Input
Amino acid sequence: MKYLILLFFIFIVYSLGSALYYMMKDNGGSKRMVKALTMRISISILLFVFIIFSFWMGWIKPTGVA
Amino acid sequence: MQSRPDYYIPSGSYWPILGSVGLFAMLGGFAGSLHGSIVGTIGLVLGLGMIIFMVFGWIGQVVHESENGYYNKEVDMSFRMGMGWFIFSEVMFFAAFFGALFYARQLSVPWLAGEGNNFWTGELLWPEFKSIWPLVAMPDPTNFSIPKGIIGAWELPAINTLLLLTSGATLTWAHWALMNKNRNQLIAGLMITIVLGITFLGLQIEEYYLAYTTLDLKLSSGIYGSTFFMLTGFHGFHVTLGVIMLIVILMRCIRGHFNMDRHFGFEAVAWYWHFVDVVWLGLFVVVYWL
Output
C-alpha cells in the first residue's frame, strides 16, 4: 500500500515539475503548463479518493496512539 | 501591448536600502525582544512594517512598469529565473523538515530503543523504552509536555485536505478561464480559491487550539510535537503567503491585468499554490496516515 501511494506521489511530483518546466520554457505562450497542472490536481484528487476508499475497505488505518 | 526592444534598467531606487534597514531592525529587534527589551519589540514591529511597506511599494512599481510595457522578453525571463531559484530554495526548505521527521522516526528513535547494532544504547540508557510512532511515551518525559493523544486523520486534517484539493481545482478552473479569455470565470475562480484558503487557515488554527488545550500536544511534546508543529506550521505560513499573493493577483485581474499571452504573475502564484497543495498532501499522508 505504501508503494502504491508512493507511485501516486511520483506522478503528482512529475506533473508539478513538468508544469514548472513549461512555465520556465514557454514564456506563457502555450497551454502546456495549465494542462500539466490539471493533471496534477486530477491525480491528487484521485489519491485522496483512493485513501478514503482504502480506509473504507480496511486496507489502511490512520496513525494512532498504540 | 508593445514592449521595449532594449533591456529595461530602472533608475535609482530606494526600495533595496529600505528593505535592508527593515530586515536589520526586524531581526535585531527580535533578538532584543527575546531578552525582554521593549526597544527590541518596537524595532521588531517597525522593521516588519518597513518590510511590508517595501514589498508592496516595490512590487507595485514592478507591476506598474510591466503594465506600461517597459519589459521585454529578457526581463520576463529574468523573473522566471528568479521564481525558479525561489522554488528551489522552498523545495530544499521542506526537504530539510521532512528529512528531520524521517530521521527521527525511522532512525534515531528506533536506535534509542536498541534497534540495529544499538542494543546497548537502549539497554544502558532507557531499557524500558519502546520505539512507537507517534512518540507519545518518551524515554524521559521530565522536561516535556506529555500528549494525551494526537490529532486523528479523520477529523480536521481530512476536511482540510478536501478544502485544499478543491482550491487547487478552482484555481485550475481560473487558469483555464485566463487561457480562454473568460475574465468573469477567472475572477470567480480566484475568489473561491481565496475563500477556501482562508477557511483552511481557520481550521488549522482550530486544530492547534484543540491540540494545545485538550490534548496537551505542544511544540514542547518531544520530537513528535516538534516535527508536527514545525511541518504543519511552516506549511500554514506558506498558505498564508499564498492567500496574500492570490489576493494581489485577484486585484490585478479585476483591474484588467494579464492576458492569455502575458501573465507570468498569475502563473508563478498558481504554481506556488499547487506546490503548497502537494506539500500538504505529503503531510496528510506521512503525518496522519503512514
Residues 73-112 of chain B form the longest helix (40 residues).
